[in-house]
Amino acid sequence: MSVIEVRDVQTVFGTKVIHDGLNLSINEGEIYGLLGPSGCGKTTLLREMVMLQDFSHGSIDILGHNVSNIKERDAQKLRREWGVLFQFGALFSSLSIRDNIALPLVEYTDLNASMIEEIVQFKINLVGLKSSDADLFPSQISGGMKKKAGLARALCMDPKLLFLDEPTSGLDPISAREFDELILKLRSLLGLTIVMVSHDLQSIYDTLDRVAIIDEKKIAYEGTIVDVKSSKSQFVQTFFK
Ligand SMILES: Nc1ncnc2c1ncn2[C@@H]1O[C@H](COP(=O)(O)OP(=O)(O)O)[C@@H](O)[C@H]1O
Ligand SMILES: [Mg+2]
Questions:
Q1: Distance, CA 165 to ligand 2 centroid (Å)?
Q2: pLDDT digits (tens, 9 = 90+) for 136-180
Q3: pTM greater than 0.85 (yes/no)
Q4: Domains of the chain (ranges plus CATH)?
Q5: Which of 46, 114, 123, 232 lies at 20 to 30 Å from 159 by C-alpha?
Q6: 44 lines ligand 1 (CB under 6 A)
Q7: Which of 18, 196, 213, 239 to mutate to test the pocket of ligand 1 (most atoms within 8 A of CB)?
């Protein structure tokens, strides 16, 4: 069953055409990659999916809702169905890891402090941080730990969908592989559908079920990594070398 349908999406910024008719479909439970050269519009497409960016033409359906003509009340509900970890989605430096993770709960729910603490502790352990890490501040933890804390915040509201923008970029190889394993674990544990922008070839091979490769404003390839080998597109072939 598809949970996200992108149909004929065009995106124009000023006079610059970024997407010229994108079509793709993301199935429930898969880890789906958005790939392509820098500047091809991967982050923009991700932002369009999560209703942070308007597009010029076409439609995006997500969990059965057309995001272009959704009512504000439904939009508010829908936003709670996903978590997002942006590439530069930094943690607030003035807040402890605990308070960073708790932020969506404080903002969107009326849970009391002890319930929130219980959920925060659960999420901290889920992403492989230690309970005592909750007291630390972002400046006191490594890049890999920051990504995990960001992930814990994205998972705070028990979303069905998770959007990740280049989650392993800037991490050392060991932390990057650890993050990949965490993604795989969370998918099977929580039954998440995950949409991930990536540049990291190892991560692409290890985690993605299917990919869409954007090139020249269009989808140059959609399918499994295994089938990439039989793609006739020169661009797609060189992308994987
Ligand atoms: N809000 C915006 N206004 C104008 N141009 C934008 C905006 N957002 C992105 N762009 C441009 O759209 C193109 C695609 O950007 P982006 O989606 O960030 O690419 P990618 O994530 O694939 O590297 C870039 O040329 C970028 O400068
Ligand atoms: Mg980007």
A1: 7
A2: 999 999 999 999 999 999 999 999 999 999 999 999 999 999 999
A3: yes
A4: 1-81+160-241 (3.40.50.300), 88-158 (no CATH)
A5: 114
A6: yes
A7: 18
